[in-house]
Amino acid sequence: MAPLSGLQIQKLLPKTNCKECGSNTCLAFAMKLAAKKAELSACPYVSEEAKAELGAAAEPPIRTVKLGAPNGITVGGETVMFRHEKTFVNAMGLGISVDDTLTDDEIERRVKAIAEYRLERVGEELRPNVVSVARKNGSSARFLAVIQRVAELWDQVVVVRSAEVSDLRAAAEALRGRRPLLASATPDTVKELGEIAKANEAALAVASDEFDELAEMVETLRSIDFKDILLELSADTLCEHVQNNTIIRRGALKSGIKDLGYPMLRYIDTGNALDDAVEAGIEIVKYGGVAILPTFDPSTFVSLLALRQNIYTDPQKPIQVEPCLRGCLSRSVKA
Amino acid sequence: MSALFQQMVSSVSRQIADSIKDKLAGELREMLKADIQEKLRPISSELRQDITREVAASLLGAINGVAPAQTVQTKAPIVSVPSVPSAPEMKAPLAPVAHRAVEVVTPSSPAPKAEVPKPPANVPALAPAPAKEVASKPVASVPASTKKQIVRSAEQKLAAVRSFAIPKEESSERIQEVKLGATREEGGTRGRTLALGGQNCLAFHHFEGTIPHPPAFALEVFDTVSAKLSPVLRETWGDLLGNPVEMAKACVEQHGADAISIRLEGTHPEKGGKSPEDALALVRGVLNAVDVPLIITGHSHYDATNEVMKAIAAGCKGERLLLNWVEGDNYRTIAGAALAYGHCLVAQSPIDVNLAKQLNILLTNMDLPRDRIVMDPMTGALGYGLEYTYSVMERIRLTGLGGDAALTFPMIAHVGQEAWKAKEGHAPESAFPQWGDRAKRSVLWEIQTAMPLVLSGADLVVLYHPESLAALRRNVAKLFPRGAERMEK
Ligand code: SF4
């Protein structure tokens, strides 16, 4: 549903101008609601029908999903297609993947490297946010042990990735309180995983290579009132993938397609580290929600974190750069 | 220098913010009748700014029962050029872009224009796609040895989506096609020409437009090697750096550059003071050595650069060189030379949509044909102003596609020049362990500057490192439904 205008909202209010909401008139209050600068609950007299109607319309076009607790990130919640319109607000989550085929030492080495990584740019501390743990080969018990080890070493977002519902259930229970992301539901498992995620306060990704299937899964989850969803739409080519990202963002924002109004999850693994970095960069620029690379390398992450910082900067903020000894943009200005 | 740039950008952003405030306030005053104003008075001034034109217009419409006035003239247009609305107003020029909802195609109806992807030549051709459903698995007849077979194209998949209409925005405008280089038949000596532009959609939006030419990548050679050049580049190019003709050859033959930029920094009076004749001789040498189009890159000393450009333009008549660059304060001489001797030029403006538009108009007013202009809204490197270039390119492209023909020109990004000035292109890993291996990191710095700019609209990117070119080329090809054709040449 497209967001309602102030005038449309006003029609649903009591129109008594009693001022109890803190605004002078119902119209003024309606304007604030339309601008998302007020909460409907501030008006004590609004009818139940109006609440229902406004409630649906008041949902932001793209859901804001919190991942990781107590330390974590917020993804989604964007309101524009282009950063010159308004700041992109919730920076894409960036991280790496480990799996149960690695030795304990290797897992520890990789997770520690990303956990200790800090980058300082223009007064901001930048860091990766996500470690995904995939089950590939081992037993369920081994998978759970790896997850628990990662959760000890890593204070941010943990993604657990397995095709088995039982794995995700055990992981969600083990990580209760950490707001993990369960990846990923399929049409067969979506209902059950939705219940598990809901009960354990986890987020859930839905995966498909079809828009329709994805939309159906989202509907299923909404029907059980579960909304902390990430969309993992796989594509055959990078070309198709990048188009899909635009279609999802635009569909949610411009066409008000509710089923598309969620942040996106992307696993990148081209087999070439440089190409992985390029694809992650594209994901930052063009609407990614969470992107996960196969490995950690500081030279890749310094460029990606800098790019993410650039793209998510307030477009009206005066430029802030690291002092550059060599006269960056030297051609730009003549005194 | 970066301090100057900071000042400039901050003053520009302040101006933008002020002009938005003025404009919205002005619009409200004009559009709202007295009684509406009465009602709006209690709304805080902060909120007033948030009320969009749409809401105001619908209010007015609802009260009057008449259609509201559509646009409000911006005040004080710069040098009598109608100015482009500032950032948050961008939707206005886009209005003519039809927000066409595509009919929902059911899986049983044939997808329009859909093609089954062509298998490689040595593979038996696929049977023509039978009635849809079944077409989803025609792989059986293809030998298992072929690479991952794409069963359905993105186009076919989108056509089959049932749960919502794919939101498409089609543009009535196309970006001007500009061809660099001229073959013998066309009056030059190039074996290959390079076409830029021609698209009617944003970068890689194949689902709602056509993109006849993939973004192109040039490499740069130098008449004088700066003492400040990154050690990574010195190591990569070695002795070639001092031999621009041989280096140009390597750029084309080994690294597949679509064009060569010759940087003539040495003609700057304080950086060697080479003569226009020296510069012309070098350009002739490179013309003889390679068959791709050339970009002639000058410097900021107007008098010297003008003399050099004139000499080269006359000496290489008909080659359709890309003379890089003219700017608002210095365009007549070089534009005159481009016009007289059949060359293209780069119109550079400092990260500003209106100034870019104004310069384009000045140039076309000199009767420079539209198909000779490439815009340069100036490049900031990753971490050093990239986001400003990114957004100005995006705004220029959106405004152009939205119907402003004074902005429908291809764009060039001087990525190598900026990315390799960044500290990240120089500092050793020992100084910044968090930055990782210097060689890898500096190449990534160039790539991660270039790719965002390609996504925001750059049609031609000038790079310094061959690995960046290879990686960008490979990935740009992946961003085309059937690979980028230029690659296969
Ligand atoms: S509290 Fe409700 S009824 Fe009273 S002015 Fe506000 S919106 Fe109107």
Overview of the molecule:
The complex is a heterodimer of chains A (335) and B (489). Chain A has 335 residues and is α/β, with parallel strands linked by helices. Chain A is built from eleven helices and twelve strands. In chain A, the strands form three sheets. An eight-stranded parallel sheet of chain A has the order 10-9-8-7-6-3-12-11. A two-stranded antiparallel sheet of chain A has the order 1-2. In chain A, strands 4-5 form a two-stranded antiparallel ribbon. Chain B has 489 residues and is α/β, with parallel strands linked by helices. An eight-stranded parallel sheet of chain B has the order 8-7-6-5-4-3-10-9. In chain B, strands 1-2 form a two-stranded antiparallel sheet. In chain B, helix 1 (2-31) packs parallel to helix 4, helix 9 (244-253) packs parallel to helix 10 and helix 16 (438-456) crosses helix 17 (466-478). The model of chain B is unreliable at 32-81 and 87-147 (pLDDT under 50). Chains A and B meet through helix 2, helix 8, helix 9, helix 10 and helix 11 of A and helix 1, helix 4, helix 7, helix 14 and helix 16 of B. Bound molecules: iron/sulfur cluster.
